[in-house]
Design goal:
This protein is α/β, with parallel strands linked by helices. Strands 1-2-3-4-5 form a 5-stranded mixed beta sheet. Strand 4, helix 3 and strand 5 form a beta-alpha-beta unit. The chain is globular, with a radius of gyration of 12 Å. The protein starts with a strand and ends with a strand. The mean pLDDT is 95.
């Protein structure tokens, strides 16, 4: 998986490409953890994410909670039909901010 991060003030956009699986989920976790402390609002651009596995969902949910604890938020933007189906089946569409 490829992760491209753009930071602007207290916001960051992380564009994910490829597949978010057990093998690549530590990369996303590390990328989120390496953001500067003043970045509180994060958008995950999922335009080029082809697939997300349960390990990837765990990282996303964990990072959403961490962002909220810091007074910020995490949004998921532009999920493909395949990724949206996984989010729907798992019930995460009810608790995640998807735009």
């Amino acid at each position: 998986m490829e992760i491209n991060t753009k930071i602007g003030g207290t916001s960051a956009t992380m564009s994910l490409a490829g597949t978010l699986t057990v093998a690549s989920s530590p990369d996303l976790e590390a990328a989120c953890e390496s953001l500067p402390d003043d970045v509180v609002d994060i958008t995950l651009d999922l335009t080029d994410l082809e697939y997300v596995a349960s390990a990837g969902l765990r990282v996303i949910v964990t990072q959403v909670k961490k962002a909220q604890q810091r007074g910020g938020s995490m949004r998921l933007a532009n999920p493909s039909a395949e990724v949206m189906e996984v989010l729907d089946v798992t019930g995460l569409v009810e608790i995640l901010d998807i735009v």
